[in-house]
User: What shape does this take?
Amino acid sequence: HRILPFVFGISIFFELLKYEKNNELLIFWTNGITKKKFILNLINFAIVIMFFQILIGSIISPASQLKARSILKNSNMDFLPNLIKQGKFLDTVTGLTIFINERVSEDSFKNIFIQEGDLFDLKKNNNQIIFAKEGILINENKKIFRLLNGKIISTNNNKLISFEFDKIDYNLSNLSSKTIKKAKIQELPSSKIIGCSLSLLNNNIYIDDMFRCEKSRLKNLNQEIYKRFIKPFYIPLIALLSCFLLTFSKVQNNFTLKSTKVFLYVFLALIISETLMRYAEESKIQFISIMIIPIFLFILIYNFLMIKVR
Assistant: This one.
C-alpha cells in the first residue's frame, strides 16, 4: 500500500517527461489523438491499477497472511533445527533461551547453553540453567535434544541446586512458539473489519470468533479500511496530476521549473494519502470526510486540467 502508489506515480511522471523530451507526444497529436483522450486513457489505466491494489490489499494479502498464521499455529517444533545457528541466541520459544557455541553437523552440536524462564530468580521455582558439552537432536515422534556431559543449575525454595550428568534427554515437543497465534487486524477478512467498524460506529454489538470487536480497536480498524479501500483511490489522482506535463512544452524557457512543480504535486499527493490514514479516528463524520477527500480532489483537478488542455 506504500510502494505501489509511489512506484506508479514516479513511473508515470518520468515516462511522460521522457515522451515530451523525445518529441514522442507529437506522434499522438499529429495523428488526431486529442490530449483529452490521451488523459482519459491514462486515467482508465490508473483505475485498473487501483482495482488491482484493492484486490491485493483487501482479499489476497489478508488471506495469505491468515493462512501463514494458521500454519504457524498448528506447527510443532520440527523447525527448531533450522533456527539453531552457531553463536546465536535462540529465543523464539516462550520461556526458553538456547545458545549453541558450535554446530558440528545438522543435528549435532557442542557447548550448549539452555535457560528456562525469562529471568533467573531465586524466588521462582521454574528457573533452570543447563550446560552440556555435546548435544544431539533426535526425531522419535517427539523432538528430543539429547545432552551429554553437562551440569544443571535450578532454583527451589530460594536455594540453588546443581548436579552433573552424563546423559539426559531434553523434551522439546511441549514447547510453544512466541509467535502470536491470534489473527492480527491486517490478517482479518475485509468483511469482518467493515462489519465490526460499522457496528462500533453505530454503538451496536458485533461478535466474532476470530477476534474481539472492541471500542478500543476502532481506530485501528478504520485505518485498516482506509489502507485497503480508500488509499488506492489516490492512484488515479496521481496519474491526473502527472498529466499537467501535457499543458506545456519543452521549448518554453520555464519548462524545468514547471516540471518540478508537477513532480512536487505528485509527491504531495503521496504524502497526503499516507498522512490522512492517521486521522481515521473513531468519529463517523471525520472518517467519512477522509473517504471523500480523494474523490473530491480528483473531480476538482480533472475539471481544472480540462480547462488547461483546451
